[in-house]
Amino acid sequence: MLRIPCPHCGERDYTEFRYAGDASKVRPKHGTDDVKTWHDFVFLFDNPKGPHREYWQHVLGCRQWLVLERNTATNEVMGAVLARTREAS
Amino acid sequence: MTERYSALALARHALTGAPWERAWRAAEPRKSYDVVIIGGGGHGLATAYYLAKNHGITNVAVIEKSYIGSGNVGRNTTLIRSNYQMPGNTQFFEHSLQLWEGLSHELNYNAMVSQRGQIVLAHSPSQLDVVARKGNTMLLNGIDSELLDRGDVMRLLPYLDYSKDCRFPIYGGIIQRRAGTVRHDAVAWGYARAASNLGVDIIENCEVTGFVRDGERITGVETTKGRVLAGRTGIAVAGHTSAVAAMAGLRLPVESHILQAFVTEPIKPFVHHVISFGAELFYISQSDKGGLVFGGHIDGFNTYTQRGQLPKIQTVAECAVALIPGISRLRLLRHWGGIQDMTPDGSPFIGRTPLRDLYLNGGWCYQGFKATPASGWCFAHTIAHEDEHPLVRHMRLDRFERGNGLDEYGLGLWTYRQ
Ligand SMILES: Cc1cc2nc3c(=O)[nH]c(=O)nc-3n(C[C@H](O)[C@H](O)[C@H](O)COP(=O)(O)OP(=O)(O)OC[C@H]3O[C@@H](n4cnc5c(N)ncnc54)[C@H](O)[C@@H]3O)c2cc1C
Ligand SMILES: [Zn+2]
Fold first, then answer.
1. Residue B173 falls within a domain, yes or no?
2. Domain with B319 in it: what CATH number?
């Protein structure tokens, strides 16, 4: 079972969380009118076999958004931080 | 050319005890080919076969990193059907079903195509309207489909839960009698043998590790057995589409996810059709050995590990018992997983790429096995003519850029994440 270390609630089963995809992408600036830029942001993924940074929301817990580091080749978890703190830094 | 399989050959081998020769030549890579196909799954092998058979291009290699049948072609739940609704999909999957119908003869290999019929259940009056509409779309395209009321379903599937207060009451459904199951390993072996007989080199245990390029043109591949040059190169690597495309510098609208499948201990013949539950993504059939084979959703987060998560067993088993209470005491014999490439709209890609002489076949999500013959047929045409086959024009890689997503279920994008 994949277990996710929530900074608020401790380590929990992944079934308490909702997966929300690649967190390494940078959202284009508000007002960007180049469609290709938005297409690439929305639709294209590195989808690496190895370390991956991704969003999860603790929907059945504190409801906070996390950024989890996980190896997609093994599902080994390297750690999680609150998305808020990461975005602020 | 290998010996033709026939009743006579069977008798001769039984009487004389003569060993059977290998089904396909064990080839080592040559320096160059007209076409190199990366990935020896169902799609790669079918593509090589149709390149040789339909287009006379026999100087072809299929390069497989492991052994033939090790990928999803040997891991799927073997269902075939053509009950699609989007223009383009309907015709493509029906072409595939028609190819399945003649496949064993075509390949001289028994693929055990079993047209036992697939029933899609409706659990509310509005869902019955939805499946009736699907059936009508099929009929308008000349595909068989019959609407079933509750009584019809009770006669066909007397073992479902029809109790007064059951959670998912059954209002009816549709049946496609030409749908069914196929022995998946035989599909890989049959295409491999038939392609090899036409001159195709099938190279196992050889991983593609990079591309040879000349500017914006791909001229070959680097492999663990050395460099192999190619006039044209096709990618058909299922769950590893992103990884192989990345070697050519391409980023794709693909995430790799695990889908699990399950089989119970064998029982006497009981489930005579393929049944699709209407209340969840869940389907069940019975193998020739007697095991009930079933599956559901992907686990839900991207991964390349072929080991599934345990909670999925519970949700899938809950579906099984909600549908057929009588199997609640059966034990699971095995479960396994395969990595499939999920796309935003749940539909695949077949076609050209931004690089010259590089072609892509991938993004099959849940539905690549039934597509195998038509996928090979159309991909071979696309490579031979340097232009998409008319049946796959809607499956182009740049469809999101052009606002032409292929949303078969009408539910919007990313439904697989929910
Ligand atoms: C559990 C499960 C159940 C399914 N059930 C159904 C079903 O009932 N009906 C249906 O229609 N579809 C089903 N599918 C989907 C279907 O199995 C796949 O879409 C289809 O098999 C993919 O195409 P393929 O056969 O070519 O893939 P594969 O057999 O996976 O072939 C791809 C090959 O590429 C090779 N490869 C990868 N990287 C490299 C490299 N770098 N160099 C060389 N070779 C490489 C791999 O080793 C592999 O053998 C299911 C899938 C799973 C996982
Ligand atoms: Zn929490």
1. yes
2. 3.30.9.10
Closest chain B C-alpha to A7 CA, distance in angstroms: 20
Nearest ligand (C-alpha, residue B40): 1
- How many domains is chain B built from? 2
Whether B401 sits inside 8 A of A21 (CB atoms) is no
| φ and ψ of A50, to 5 deg | 150, -150
Residue in A19, A45, A73 nearest the CB of B251 = A45
Prediction ipTM score: 0.95
Structure token digits, residue B272: 């005579």
Q: Chain B: residue nearest A35 by CA?
A: B401
C-alpha to C-alpha distance for B123 and B150, rounded to whole angstroms: 10
> Given this model, what pLDDT does residue A37 score?
95
Range of the domain at B61: 25-82+85-109+184-254+344-403
Q: Which one of B318, B336, B354 terminates a domain?
A: B336
**Nearest CB to B242 within list A13, A20, A47:** A47
The beta strands (E) that lie in B64-187 are given as 79-80, 118-122, 146-149, 172-176, 180-181
Write out the H or E segment, with its range, that includes residue B371: helix B368-385
Q: Are residues B39 and B97 in the same domain?
A: yes
Kindly list the protein residues whose Cβ atom lies closer than 6 A to any atom of ligand 1. Answer: B 38-44, 63-66, 70-73, 75-79, 207-208, 236-238, 240, 244, 259-261, 295, 338, 340, 364, 366-370
Q: Whose CA is nearest to atom 9 of ligand 1?
A: B79
Cβ pair B302:A73 closer than 8 A = no
φ and ψ at B120, to 5 degrees?
Answer: -100, 125
How many DSSP H helices and E strands does chain A contain?
2, 6
Catalogue all structural domains in chain A, each as residue range(s) with its CATH number: 3-82 (3.30.2270.10)
The mean pLDDT values, 10 residues at a time, for chain B of 418 residues are 91 95 96 98 98 98 97 97 93 98 98 98 97 96 98 98 94 98 98 98 98 97 98 98 97 96 97 96 96 96 94 95 96 95 95 98 97 98 97 95 88 77
Give residue B277's pLDDT.
97
Contact of B252 with chain A, judged by CB distance below 8 Å, is answered with yes
